[in-house]
Specification:
The complex is a heterodimer of chains A (351) and B (118).
Chain A lengths: L6 E2 L3 H6 L3 E5 L2 E6 L3 H10 L2 E4 L4 E6 L3 H8 L12 E7 L5 E11 L2 E6 L4 H11 L6 E4 L4 E7 L3 H6 L16 E6 L2 E6 L8 E7 L3 H10 L3 E2 L2 H10 L33 E6 L11 E4 L2 E11 L6 E7 L9 E6 L2 E8 L10
Helix pairs in contact in A: 2-7
Chain B lengths: L1 E4 L4 E6 L2 E6 L1 H7 L2 E5 L6 E2 L4 E7 L3 E5 L4 E6 L1 H5 L3 H4 L8 E4 L9 H8 L1
Antiparallel strand pairs in B: 1-2, 2-3, 3-9, 4-6, 5-8, 6-7, 8-9
The chains are: A alpha+beta (351), B alpha+beta (118).
C-alpha cells in the first residue's frame, strides 16, 4: 500500500457497486477480483470475461513522419505494419535493455495508437517525446482520457456481437487487427488483441462512455474479471509481465523476444517455463536449484487454474534451460521438483 | 465461549482451555481463492507469534501464526482436502486448528478488530 492516492478508473464506481476488491496497480486503484478469481479465470477460458484496463497508457502518434519516428523509437518496423493491423514491440535503451513492452496499432498511413503499461507511463511518455525530436510528428498522451475495456474468451465474438449500437463487422477483424468505428455515436477503437491466450477484443473509447459500454457488455453476458485472473491467464499463456519477466536489466534475447528485437548476449540466462506436481507453487523471487546449486530465479508462479498443477516462469542459466531439465524450486525452505517445459503452458484450441 | 482476534487476521474462539483458530473473512477475501493449506501436526507444540502453517491462494501465500502458546489437539482435515472451504466459511466450518493452552494472551476484541480492518 502506498500513501500516494491512486488514480481512479472511469469505471471505479461500477466496480465498487459490483463489490470488487481493489489493489494498487501501476499507480491506479483497480479491481483485483469481484468474487472468486478462479471462477473469473474459468469464465475467460470457457465463455467470456470482461476486464477494465483503463490504467493502460495510450499514445496517439500522428504526422507525416509518424512511421519513421516509431521505426527509430521502438524495436521492429512500425512502418511495415499495414493499416488496421497491430504489432507487439519493445521500448529499449540504447544498449538494448527493456524499458517497456507495448502494442503498436496502425490506424492510418500517418496515424498510430501505441499502448504501454500503466507502471511505465511516465518513462514511455518521456522517451516518446525525447525520441520524437527532429521528426514531423505529434505524440498525444491519451492515457487519462481514454478507457480500455477488454472482452476475452471463446464467446467474445458472440458477446460483443450483442452490442446493437456497435457499428462493426467483428468477423472481418482478424487477430491483431483494429478498426475505428462508433458506439452509441461515440468514436471507439475495436482491436482483436488481448493478454489471456484467448480470442477477444480490446475496446478503447473516451472515459464518459466507458460505464455504459461496461454495463452493456455485462448485460450481453461477459463476466467481470479482476487483475488476479488476468495474471493467472497471462501466465498460463506464457506472456511476459513487465516488472516480472521484463525489466530494465533484461535484454530481449534472454526473454525469448529475439523475434521482436534480436538484442542480448547468447549464453546468458534464459526465460523458461517450469511445471511441478502437487499444489505448492513457486512465486516471484524464489530460487531455482539444480541439486544444491542455485541456477535461477522465479519471475512469476501460480497453481495453474486450467491445468491443475503449479507453473512458473523463471530465468535460469542457459545450461539449465533445455526442455526436460529436472530442477527444483526452493518454496520457503522446501525443495519442490520442477521440470523445464515449453512455453506457453496453455494454448487455446484453434478453430 | 468468546471469539477474539489477532493483528494477523486470525480468529480465536475460546472454550475452556481449548482455542479454535481460523482466519477471518477479511483475510480470506484478501487472499483470494485458497488452493493449498498446510497445518501443524496434532501433538505439536506451538508458540505465540510463530509461523505454524501456510494458506496459499492463486495469487499469494498467507502464513498461519499461532495466536497463543500450546499444543495442537486437532486439525481440520476437511480444509486440507478442500482448501476452497476457507473462502466459503472461514469463520465457521473452515476453522484450522484447535490448541490446548494454559494462558490466554492479550488479543483483540471484535470491536478492536473491526477498527483494525476499517
Amino acid at each position: 500500500m502506498s500513501d500516494t492516492p491512486s488514480r481512479l478508473s472511469p469505471l471505479d464506481a461500477a466496480h465498487e457497486a459490483a463489490g470488487a476488491s481493489f489493489t494498487d496497480f501501476g499507480g491506479w486503484r483497480m479491481p483485483v477480483r469481484y468474487g472468486s478469481d478462479l471462477a473469473e479465470h474459468e469464465a475467460v477460458r470457457t465463455a467470456a470475461g470482461l476486464f477494465d484496463l483503463s490504467h493502460m497508457a495510450e499514445f496517439l502518434v500522428v504526422g507525416p513522419q509518424a512511421a519513421a519516428f516509431l521505426d527509430a523509437a521502438l524495436a521492429g518496423q512500425a512502418s511495415a505494419i499495414a493499416n488496421g493491423r497491430a504489432k507487439y514491440s519493445l521500448l529499449l535503451t540504447e544498449d538494448g535493455r527493456i524499458l517497456d513492452d507495448l502494442v503498436v496499432y496502425r490506424l492510418a498511413d500517418d496515424e498510430f495508437w501505441v499502448v504501454a503499461n500503466a507502471g511505465n507511463h511516465d518513462v514511455v511518455a518521456a522517451e516518446l517525446v525525447a525520441r520524437g525530436a527532429g521528426f514531423d510528428v505529434s505524440v498525444g498522451d491519451e492515457t487519462f482520457t481514454c478507457a480500455l475495456v477488454a472482452v476475452q474468451g471463446p464467446d467474445s465474438v458472440a458477446v460483443v456481437g450483442r452490442l446493437d449500437e456497435l457499428d462493426v463487422e467483428l468477423d472481418a477483424i482478424r487477430y491483431y487487427g483494429i478498426v475505428e468505428t462508433t458506439y452509441r455515436g461515440q468514436p471507439i477503437l475495436v482491436a482483436r488483441t488481448g493478454y489471456t491466450g484467448e480470442d477477444g477484443f480490446e475496446l478503447y473509447l473516451d472515459n464518459p462512455g466507458a460505464e455504459q459500454l461496461w454495463n452493456d457488455l455485462v448485460a450481453a453476458g461477459a463476466v467481470p474479471c479482476g487483475l488476479a485472473a488476468r495474471d493467472t491467464l497471462r501466465l498460463e499463456a506464457g506472456m511476459p509481465l513487465y516488472g516480472h519477466e521484463l525489466t530494465a536489466d533484461i535484454r530481449p534475447r534472454e526473454a525469448g523476444l529475439a523475434r521482436v528485437a534480436d538484442v542480448g548476449t547468447p549464453g546468458a540466462r534464459v526465460l523458461v517455463g517450469l511445471a511441478s506436481e502437487g499444489r505448492r507453487a513457486g512465486r516471484a523471487g524464489y530460487p531455482v536449484l539444480r541439486g544444491d546449486t542455485v541456477v535461477g530465479e522465479v519471475t512469476s508462479g501460480a497453481l495453474s487454474p486450467t491445468l491443475g498443477h503449479p507453473i512458473a516462469m523463471a530465468y535460469v542459466d542457459a545450461d539449465a534451460s533445455a526442455v526436460g531439465t529436472e530442477l527444483s524450486l526452493d518454496v520457503r525452505g522446501t525443495a519442490i521438483p520442477a521440470t523445464v517445459v515449453p512455453l506457453p503452458f496453455y494454448s487455446r484450441k484453434k478453430a | 465461549m468468546s471469539t477474539l482476534y489477532t493483528k494477523d487476521h486470525e480468529w480465536v474462539a475460546v472454550d475452556g482451555d481449548i482455542a479454535t483458530v481460523g482466519i477471518t473473512v477479511y483475510a480470506a477475501d484478501k487472499l483470494g481463492d485458497v488452493v493449498y493449506v498446510d497445518l501443524p501436526a496434532v501433538g505439536s507444540t506451538v508458540a505465540a507469534g510463530k509461523i505454524v502453517g501456510e494458506i496459499e491462494s492463486t495469487k499469494s501465500v498467507g502464513e498461519l501464526f499461532a495466536p497463543l502458546d500450546g499444543e495442537v489437539v486437532e486439525r481440520n482435515e476437511s480444509v486440507v482436502d478442500d482448501p476452497s472451504s476457507v473462502n466459503a466459511d472461514p469463520e465457521g466450518a473452515a476453522w484450522l486448528i484447535k490448541v490446548r493452552f494454559t494462558e490466554l494472551p492479550e488479543l483483540l476484541s471484535a470491536e478492536q478488530y473491526a477498527e483494525l480492518t476499517a
